[in-house]
Amino acid sequence: MRLQDKVAIVTGGGSGFGAGIAARFAAEGARVVVADIDGDAATKVAGGIARDGGKAVAITADVTACADVAAMVAAATDTYGGLHILVNNAGYSHVNKPMTEVTEEEFDRVFAVNVKAIYLAAQAALPALRAQAGEAGATGACILNTSSTAALRPRPGLTWYNGSKGAVNTLTKSMAVELAPERIRVNAICPVIGETGMLQTFMGREDTPEVRARFVATIPLGRMSRPTDIAAAAVFLASDEADMITGVCLEVDGGRCI
Fold first, then answer.
1. Residues 197-203: contacts with CB under 8 Å, at least 24 apart
2. Which residues belong to the active site?
3. What is the mean pLDDT for each group of 10 consecutive residues in the chain (258 residues)?
4. What per-residue confidence (pLDDT) applies to 135?
5. What domains lie within the chain, and their CATH numbers?
6. Is residue 144 within a helix (H) or strand (E), and if so which, with residue range?
7. Looking at residue 202, what is its pLDDT?
8. Could you tell me if 186 and 246 are in contact, meaning their C-beta atoms sit under 8 angstroms apart?
9. Where are the alpha helices (DSSP H) in the chain?
């Protein structure tokens, strides 16, 4: 197992990419804290992991609230004795629409969830990650940020979301350089539009086969991303196999960004 006995936090773990990452991490031997603003969804995912023989606990956490983020990290250290992997996966977007129609409240929420949450998580989690990376014989620790192809090939109608994900990519590279001397790796995953609960938000219109076909036509491999695709990339980047990889924003996009 590629993540045997490692402890991981996955934010936004109650659905979509986060649920896929949490389940795959557990299948690879990790002990997982499933954090989500929807506590029932987090509990459902953690329960499914336990039924499959894995180890997981759920916690209700708003990643934009300092106290919730601290509690999320405490859940990992108190339950499992440490922290090796932090996955900043929780995300939010305004509906696809002209940039001037996005309200200030929507704008603030986009940047709070997609950008400020990474800052809050770093503040709370770095002491535990540093403790792990500093242990004799340890292979280090890592942070994974879920970004988007929107940071690299932005679509119209998602301007402020695109900008927030551009910030995620820049933060990932800067964090990687700053934390490398401490053997804490930082990478990002950039999924193309995916089959998740946010699909209709990104499309900005009713989810119909015809609308899907127009989006899929922009992806050379001919399909949207799936949670399993993102989870596979996350396992690799979190594993010791990626020990020499940091500051990478990995496109999982079926060729969309070519």
1. 197/15, 197/16, 198/16, 198/91, 198/93, 199/224, 201/93, 201/94, 201/95, 201/96, 202/93, 202/96, 202/158, 203/96
2. 161
3. 97 98 98 98 98 98 98 98 98 96 98 98 98 77 98 95 98 98 97 81 76 88 96 98 97 96
4. 73
5. 7-197+226-252 (3.40.50.720)
6. strand 141-146
7. 77
8. yes
9. 16-27, 39-51, 66-80, 104-111, 117-133, 159-179, 199-203, 209-216, 227-238
Task: Please provide the size of the chain in residues.
Answer: 258
Alpha helices in 155-225 (DSSP H): 159-179, 199-203, 209-216
**What is the DSSP annotation of 87-118?**
EE-------S--GGGS-HHHHHHHHIIIIIHH
Q: Which two tokens stand for residue 228?
A: 């399993």
Contact 233, 250 (CB under 8 A): yes
Between the CA atoms of 192, 142, 21 and 237, what dihedral angle is there, to the nearest 10 degrees? 60
* 204: phi then psi, degrees, rounded to nearest 5: 75, 20
User: Looking at residue 182, what DSSP letter applies?
Assistant: G
Q: What is the pLDDT of residue 213?
A: 86
**What tokens were used for 128?**
């535990």
Q: What's the confidence (pLDDT) of residue 137?
A: 61
Closest CA to 237 of 98, 97, 87, 115: 87
